[in-house]
């Protein structure tokens, strides 16, 4: 079996090697501060007793699992603390495929590229369902694609790369489709704190034995390097997932879990609101400049990303490299996200230089 290295790394490296100043709009690394309590937690950790530097319980620190369970209205037994949302998605997809109820994973197009990559790695096959121009998914299309071969339906809202936020009816229906076909809905909600529309609905709102919710603190606390996330499983699916997590990882980082727990307890809603406000401002700045450049674009309802289309400049890897060399702006090629956005480029708004980047693009495409 051959695995593909995500294209993302290639573009990052190309931008790094460039012989000029490049504004990075490739990565999903927030450029703003983590919560103060997160920093305090990490400082404090350095002075703890040696036993605190040893293995934590594999499924995660009990206090953190209890804190998450209380916030999400589930039992702590259902919560596995993972190495970010990435591992949570892997565990969820693996759990769905190992039920032997089928081998197909329904994904959206456009898609977050790690999902098709994980599907291949886990021996499944992908079946893509197109979203509309705004990135909205019609559950009727998912129902049509579903069959007894469907092991999982993997969705992400707020969405990377489209910025779509699925309304309550969509999420409810997706859970219903998973139930009808005895499949598992995997709902990746890693951008839940970046719902700019107020329309976000978590799959946890719909009680079901057929859905797994994944999440992480990577984006919400601006700590993609700390590696703390979680998955919430239905009770009858959780044991195997814990075993897989133990066999693959042993556990995830203990200092990270400690600091996240502290930050969860001490960080108020104003921290998250301030970051959303910052993003809202950046969306306006960037899309105003795209207007000036005569580009077509999507205005995100959530997450960090704007997709843009410049006339006669399709979103190929080659064009992305040209944009790095000639305009000094690095984005992601639309072709990385499936077949439906090959004409588009994706820009991440996690740089303080959004305005400058927009000006560079406007000048370049003038
Ligand atoms: C949709 C989506 N899921 C998962 C991840 C990975 O999250 P983590 O860093 O917590 O593993 C990302 C990162 O960009 C993402 O965009």
From TrEMBL:
<dbReference type="GO" id="GO:0006520">
    <property type="term" value="P:amino acid metabolic process"/>
</dbReference>
<keyword id="KW-0808">Transferase</keyword>
<keyword id="KW-0032">Aminotransferase</keyword>
<dbReference type="Pfam" id="PF00155">
    <property type="entry name" value="Aminotran_1_2"/>
</dbReference>
<protein>
    <submittedName>
        <fullName>Aspartate/methionine/tyrosine aminotransferase</fullName>
    </submittedName>
</protein>
<dbReference type="GO" id="GO:0008483">
    <property type="term" value="F:transaminase activity"/>
</dbReference>
<comment type="similarity">
    <text>Belongs to the class-I pyridoxal-phosphate-dependent aminotransferase family.</text>
</comment>
<feature type="domain" description="Aminotransferase class I/classII large">
    <location>
        <begin position="21"/>
        <end position="361"/>
    </location>
</feature>
<dbReference type="InterPro" id="IPR015421">
    <property type="entry name" value="PyrdxlP-dep_Trfase_major"/>
</dbReference>
<comment type="subunit">
    <text>Homodimer.</text>
</comment>
<dbReference type="InterPro" id="IPR004839">
    <property type="entry name" value="Aminotransferase_I/II_large"/>
</dbReference>
<dbReference type="InterPro" id="IPR015424">
    <property type="entry name" value="PyrdxlP-dep_Trfase"/>
</dbReference>
<keyword id="KW-0663">Pyridoxal phosphate</keyword>
<dbReference type="InterPro" id="IPR050596">
    <property type="entry name" value="AspAT/PAT-like"/>
</dbReference>
<dbReference type="GO" id="GO:0030170">
    <property type="term" value="F:pyridoxal phosphate binding"/>
</dbReference>
């Amino acid at each position: 079996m051959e695995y593909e290295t995500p294209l993302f790394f290639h573009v990052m490296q190309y931008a790094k090697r460039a012989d000029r100043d490049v504004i990075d709009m490739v990565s999903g690394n927030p450029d703003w501060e983590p919560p103060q309590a997160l920093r305090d937690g990490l400082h404090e950790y350095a002075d703890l007793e040696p036993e605190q530097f040893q293995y934590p319980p594999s499924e995660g620190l009990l206090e953190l699992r209890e804190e998450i369970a209380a916030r999400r209205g589930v039992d702590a037994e259902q919560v596995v603390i993972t190495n970010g949302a990435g591992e949570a998605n892997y565990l969820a997809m693996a759990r769905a495929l190992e039920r032997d109820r089928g081998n197909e994973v329904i994904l959206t197009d456009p898609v977050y590229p790690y999902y098709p990559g994980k599907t291949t790695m886990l021996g499944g096959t992908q079946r893509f369902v197109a979203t509309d121009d705004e990135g909205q998914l019609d559950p009727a299309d998912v129902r049509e694609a579903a069959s007894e071969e469907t092991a999982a339906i993997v969705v992400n809202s707020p969405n990377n790369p489209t910025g779509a936020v699925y309304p309550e009816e969509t999420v409810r229906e997706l859970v219903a489709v998973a139930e009808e076909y005895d499949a598992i809905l995997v709902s990746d909600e890693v951008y839940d704190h970046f719902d700019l529309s107020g329309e976000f609905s978590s799959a946890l709102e719909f009680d079901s034995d057929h859905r797994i919710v994944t999440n992480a603190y990577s984006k919400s606390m601006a700590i993609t390097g700390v590696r703390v996330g979680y998955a919430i499983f239905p009770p009858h699916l959780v044991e195997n997932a814990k075993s897989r997590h133990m066999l693959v990882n042993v556990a995830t980082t203990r200092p990270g879990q400690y600091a996240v727990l502290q930050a969860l307890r001490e960080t108020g809603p104003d921290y998250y609101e301030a970051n959303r406000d910052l993003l809202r401002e950046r969306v306006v700045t960037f899309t105003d400049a795209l207007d000036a450049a005569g580009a077509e674009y999507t205005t995100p309802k959530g997450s960090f990303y704007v997709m843009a289309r410049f006339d006669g400049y399709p979103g190929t890897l080659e064009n992305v490299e040209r944009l790095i060399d000639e305009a000094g702006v690095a984005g992601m090629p639309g072709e990385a996200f499936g077949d439906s956005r090959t004409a588009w480029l994706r820009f991440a708004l996690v740089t303080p230089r959004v305005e400058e980047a927009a000006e560079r693009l406007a000048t370049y495409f003038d």
